[in-house]
Amino acid sequence: MRQRLLIAAFLCCAATASAQQNNAKIEQQVGQLLAKMTLEEKVGQMTQVTLDAIIKTGSSGTVEPHTIDAQKLNEAILKYHVGSILNTSGKPYTREQWLTFITQIQQTAAKDRLKIPVVYGIDAIHGMNYTIGCTLFPQEIALAATFNPALALKAGEITAYETRASYIPWNFSPVLDLGKNALWPRIWETFGEDPFVAKTMGAAMIKGYQGDNIGDKYKVAACMKHYLGYSFPLSGKDRTPAWIPDRYMREYFLPSFREAVKAGARTLMINSAEINGVPVHSSKYLLTDVLRNELGFTGIAVTDWADIKYLHDRHKIAATQKEAVMIAVNAGVDMSMVPYDYSFYSYLLELVKEGKVPMTRIDESVKRILTVKYELGLFERPVGNPSDYKKFGSAEFTKASLDAATEAITLLKNSNNVLPLKKGIKVLVTGPTANTMRALNGGWSYTWQGDKNDEYAASKNTILEAIQQKIGAANVVYEAGTSFDAVQNIDAAAMAAEQVDAVILCVGELSYTENVGNIDDLNIPDAQVQLAKAVAKAGKPVIVVLAEGRPRIVTEIDKLSAA
User: Fold this and answer.
1) According to the model, what pLDDT value does residue 3 have?
2) Any idea which residues carry the catalytic annotation?
3) May I ask the CATH class of domain 411-560?
4) Are 475 and 467 in contact (CB under 8 A)?
């Protein structure tokens, strides 16, 4: 035993020494590269644009199939020295398409004077959800329902593998906001309302994404978001003001980010909204005093979508767009998700030359960006090797997703042990969530709003299809009954309920995220309540299946349900 302990201690010390040597080497490389850079090249590194800024377009919009416009790409990288690109252009891509895009981007970066690779970022929040054939995992709120950090770790590991298999090294995940306002349309992207659960599951997912070395070909840089207090708007509407006392902030909202920093998260995305009247993108207190000096975060702080512009357009704290850039960078922003143009680049150049943003502030941010690029191994391997990722979309990965989903499903009620249903019975499946993948996968699934789930996940089973496979299609009657918010054919569903042994009522929400999901009322739409009342009149057991992104009020439906 003593010998084993000595060996373990030796290996631990050796690993620590190796990491320290690598850190020192990267620090030296960053210092040498920074010394060679012009102001223009530095400001370029702080600029991030979306794929749409470089995609080929015509008179009717984006040209199909999607291809990169070489002239636009040259402008982005060779003229503006852009350090990062993100996103898709409204659709998922195959691995081969991603390889073509990333290769072209990195080959162009290699033509720039200093050959600094671009770091590409993506929102792979529950699997590499923008690559066709990926392994999708339950959303964070469902993972939280398992209370099993090992599942979050495994989801992170497989997502990292498949994101790198798509040649992308930076993942804008996990969401570490607390889901404390049930109206908020991104509740389902969080690990829920409990600080302990959020920080524990978040740290596990970060470990899965990053491992011990983000330069590993199967690991990515994680991005903890959205720092800080984003999820608690007074109105419940996305990107609207919050009022959070400092003590409450520190007790509830800060712990998950503190734990993420301890777990080694290398990047961070900033809250788009404002707290106590101060937009977070303008808050030196939060972005420097707390984040850097208190938490000890050393990585990249990136804005969310167009949020520096919003300091002028929405928050009205900057008289001009140029002043907005000055405020944000001086507060501690490292990289601007602009995302469509090069205004940030132009304004920041002027501000430095005018002495309104100090060069020390620029160097600070560029050091952080270059450090993460070196840590990711982008200077040695800007594009991955396709042959390294044979497990992409594999049965092994699918089984891991199934394990997580199985633990995530939560039984809320089971009166008189009605479940499990007896074999050989006939059931009615009804309701708006019964036969659509949108309600199961949610947003950030193949597209931003998840509105193409039924197209790209056509090979997967809806609730209806899964029940048909389980008990035989001959034993299943299907009537939609309603859409999500409008009565369609409730009478047909009510009549069908008379002819079966049990009713499986599938209610909830369609996929959404961000402002598209804003609501004023937590009550589930009345059309779904009417459907429940209609089918319950048959007197058969009603089993309610809730597929929703936030806790809707279902009191009337609950009264009618057996499970």
Assistant:
1) 64
2) 304
3) alpha beta
4) no
